[in-house]
Amino acid sequence: QVQLVESGGGSVQAGGSLRLSCAASGFTFTAYNMGWFRQAPGKERQGVACISTRSTNSVYSASVKGRFTISRDNANNTLYLQINNLKPEDTAMYYCAAARRWGLIAEIYDYWGQGTQVTVSS
Fold first, then answer.
1. What is residue 56's DSSP assignment?
2. Could you tell me if residue 31 is left (phi over 0), alpha (psi between -120 and 50 degrees) or otherwise beta?
3. In whole angstroms, what is the distance from residue 88 CA to residue 79 CA?
4. What counts of helices (H) and strands (E) characterise the chain?
5. What distance in Å separates the CA atoms of residue 24 and residue 31, rounded to the nearest whole number?
């Protein structure tokens, strides 16, 4: 079965850092672009960052560029999101996702994890 399992979320103060992980299994990880999305209560799910199959390209939303870094370890089927200088507006459920297509549009993603909660207090 396809599985994407996020971890690393938590409650932190503004200015802090977190490293989110997503462990993938049940599909050919190296054949998929990977992305991180987030959804705050009452808001639409939004793309955060995505990374190509061999890490040759990555894209970030404007709100996180410079603070977030997406990476992947294909040898271990793991996706990461390093988050620095957290802001209260980063509070959301963070989801990892896998897609054969390229982009930050949720509709193109084939597989999704269950999410990990990030809560940032001021």
1. S
2. alpha
3. 24
4. 0, 11
5. 12
